[in-house]
Amino acid sequence: MGQYVAPLRDMQFVMHELLHVEDELKQLPKHAEIDADIINQVLEEGGKFTSQVLFPLNHSGDREGCNHDKTTHTVTTPKGFKEAYKQYVEAGWPALSCDPEYGGQGLPLVINNSFYEMMNSANQAWTMYPGLSHGAYECLHAHGTPQQQALYLPKLVSGEWTGTMCLTESHCGTDLGMLRSKAEPQDDGSYRITGSKIFISAGEHDMAENIVHLVLARLPGAPEGSKGISLFLVPKFLPNADGTLGARNPITCGAIEEKMGIHGNSTCQMNLDGATGWIIGGPHKGLNAMFVFMNVARLGVGMQGLGLTEVAYQNALVYTKDRIQMRSLSGVKAPQRPADPIIVHPDVRRMLLTAKAYTEGARAFCSYVALQLDKELNHPDEQVRKDCADEVALLTPVVKAFITDNAWAATSECLQVYGGHGYIAEWGMEQYVRDARINMIYEGTNTVQSLDLLGRKVLMDNGAKLKKFGAKVQAFIEENGADEALSEFITPLADLGDKVSKLTMEIGMKAFQNPDEVGAAAVPYLRVVGHLVCAYFFAQMAKIALAKQDSGDKFYVSKLATARFYFARLLPETAMLIRQARSGAGSLMALDADLF
């Protein structure tokens, strides 16, 4: 069923030629010994694991799904999932970027990030099991007590235990201030937690011996709204002091959600019937702690979008070279065949290039953010750490929303390439479309990400974070503006940078008069910023490719053509988006609700 080959050449281009990761890591004492050979070796081994072990389970896992036993509350994952997870653990993959103090390998996040792209391409539903564990690890690493860290982190790092985050309840999704789950303090310092959660990915399964749930709930007398939320560590089995498993905790799966996609992942309704838990991060500070998990998850969801776009593109490309239909409008291209392969047709190429450009732009974007995160956590210069933290905060909602929006569009285009065969399950393409759709919804819908970007990350600090990133873009423009060969990239990049500045100021002024202006402009505004970021990286990639296009390596010829397509065919969307953002709230809010 289809194919997946890890895009190692492009990953290495981004790492070594675009971002100069080795040089960047030498500035970080923790990672100073990491060189290109180590990076390449990890990526190569990751490519083998994902293509040979995970990808063959993707289609069968989607068709089989998970099985829930209502009597025992247990969940059985699709055939082969458990065995693949065992191989994943035995190979040490869960520990890749984790703290060596707890058994991790301590490699940079930028490497782990590329490995997760591969896993998401190969099998997103499977990847969500260890992916959520990584978020739980990060949360406990940042906010857990020393006792919690000593007991739980080694198990999460090794992969012996997995993790989840339990936020959503049936009456509240994004508005977590409305949640009703309760936590009653006990004499021994633990808490007795009751409530029900829904949409809990990997909430119950048979792949690991224990599951560490991070649960949001309210203490008695807690303040109303989000200020009264606390976070609790609630394991499936209560561990003994030595890490062995004790009694079964009453947090159980009541049902598995029937979903549009990601059928291989158990999305559970979880019931807590007086389950024992321990507080993380202090009373009423649950959201502060959980946001560590949520931000890791938002970056991870962007990687899911990238992974699906890559694998959809790979398979659509193979199909277009094999499938024959009609003759080329400009003359016969395959005279030995009764018709030409469909890759000769202009609009088929448009669909392929859309997926290719969104893939390559997203790969550069995500790798850059992961590298900034490594620098935020490990750079010896405090100002550099702060600047990187600001940039990660600014770009995280863009990674999540822009890349998953594009993945939905690109996987749909790749399905269209197949014609009627794309709509048929046996070809596998329709699964990528179904799986891609959830990524625009969970971990904060893309509208919420847009509000976060415009309202909190841009307007709240009067555009300070955006200006810092804009200064990098402007420096590149000034450095290369006189190069005539680059003008086809530099001129539109500079033009968009100016327009983003003006649009931001205009929306900010309007928002003083009417806060609804932010909500009306947020979604198109985020896409405009997303295009600014991708145009910045494509301009840099084009500069590299121009210098090497005559080297004999056709990779650079392809890269340059993709950059030109992006600027010619995709970037012009910003003209429409800017007009939408400027149109204001009037046309959206004028109609009375009872007239809809």
Describe what this molecule looks like in 3D.
57% of the residues lie in helices and 11% in strands. The protein has 596 residues and is an alpha+beta fold. The strands form three sheets. Strands 3, 4, 5, 6, 7, 10 and 11 form a seven-stranded mixed beta sheet that branches. It has a two-stranded antiparallel ribbon with strand order 1-2. A two-stranded antiparallel sheet has the order 8-9. Strand 8 (237-239) and strand 9 (245-248) form a beta hairpin. Helix 9 (346-378) packs across helix 15, helix 12 crosses helix 15 and helix 13 (464-480) runs antiparallel to helix 14 (487-513). The chain is globular, with a radius of gyration of 24 Å. The protein starts with 7 loop residues before the first helix and ends in a 7-residue tail after the last helix.
Summarize this entry quickly.
By secondary structure, the protein is α+β, with helices and mostly antiparallel strands.
Give the secondary structure arrangement, pairings included.
Elements: H1 8-18, H2 21-25, H3 36-54, H4 58-64, E1 67-69, E2 74-76, H5 81-90, H6 109-143, H7 146-158, E3 161-166, E4 182-185, E5 191-201, E6 210-217, E7 230-235, E8 237-239, E9 245-248, E10 251-256, E11 267-280, H8 286-322, H9 346-378, H10 382-417, H11 429-438, H12 446-458, H13 464-480, H14 487-513, H15 516-548, H16 554-570, H17 573-582, H18 586-589
Parallel strand pairs: 3-6
Antiparallel strand pairs: 1-2, 4-5, 5-11, 6-7, 7-11, 8-9, 10-11
Helix pairs in contact: 1-3, 1-9, 3-6, 4-6, 6-7, 6-8, 6-9, 8-9, 8-10, 8-11, 9-10, 9-15, 9-16, 10-11, 10-12, 10-13, 10-15, 12-15, 13-14, 14-15, 14-17, 15-16, 15-17
